[in-house]
């Protein structure tokens, strides 16, 4: 059986993907992949996602320069979630979020509110033109 056939794709032919920083264990972002995106990620060892809003492949960093080099790809026990262990390139420390932060998970629940706990490392206006 083909390794891609072992994945439980959803009704739209997508699988959820978590990108985790290999060196720190930080969860950087969540995205989606279709078969082509996962195949290209495996071939290139670079994260390639599927943009649902643009309905096309999204090579992480194609606009921002914040590329993710993939070291390890894992599949969960139900075969329906992919974990990528990556190195986030393009800025030091690496920026994974379109808000200019290291991680997309920068809001923390505190006393009934979500509080931004990570700084903006680079103004998003200067990243995306």
Helix amount, in percent?
10-25%
Secondary-structure element order, N to C: EEHEEEEEEH
User: Based on DSSP secondary structure assignment, what is the total number of beta strands?
Assistant: 8
CATH class: Alpha Beta
- Output the structural class: mainly beta
Low-confidence stretches: none
- Main pleated-sheet profile: 4 strands, mixed
Second CATH tier, the architecture: Roll
Number of helices: 2
Instruction: Determine the N-to-C terminus distance.
Output: 43 Å
How would you name the CATH homologous superfamily? Phosphoribosyl-AMP cyclohydrolase
Share of residues in strands = 25-35%
Order of the strands making up the biggest sheet: 2-1-6-5
The geometry reads as: globular
CATH topological fold name: Ubiquitin-like (UB roll)
| Mean pLDDT over the full residue set | 94
Could you give the topology of this structure?
Elements: E1 15-21, E2 27-33, H1 35-44, E3 48-51, E4 56-59, E5 68-75, E6 82-88, E7 107-110, E8 113-116, H2 124-127
Parallel strand pairs: 1-6
Antiparallel strand pairs: 1-2, 3-4, 5-6, 7-8
Structure, explained:
The protein has 129 residues and is mainly β. It has one domain (3-96): Phosphoribosyl-AMP cyclohydrolase (Ubiquitin-like (UB roll)), CATH 3.10.20. It has helices at 35-44, 124-127, and strands at 15-21, 27-33, 48-51, 56-59, 68-75, 82-88, 107-110, 113-116. Strand 3 and strand 4 form a beta hairpin. It starts with 14 loop residues before the first strand and ends with a helix.
């Amino acid at each position: 059986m083909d390794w891609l056939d072992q994945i439980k794709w959803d009704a739209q032919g997508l699988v959820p993907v978590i990108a985790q920083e290999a060196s720190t264990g930080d969860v950087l972002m969540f995205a989606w992949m279709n078969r082509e995106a996962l195949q290209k990620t495996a071939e290139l060892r670079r994260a390639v996602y599927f943009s649902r809003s643009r309905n096309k492949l999204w090579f992480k960093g194609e606009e921002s320069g914040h590329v993710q080099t993939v070291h390890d790809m894992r599949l969960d026990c139900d075969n329906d979630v992919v974990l990528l262990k990556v190195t986030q390139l393009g800025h030091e420390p690496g920026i994974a979020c379109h808000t200019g932060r290291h991680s997309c998970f920068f809001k923390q629940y505190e006393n009934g509110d979500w509080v931004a706990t990570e700084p903006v490392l680079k103004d998003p206006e200067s990243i995306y033109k």
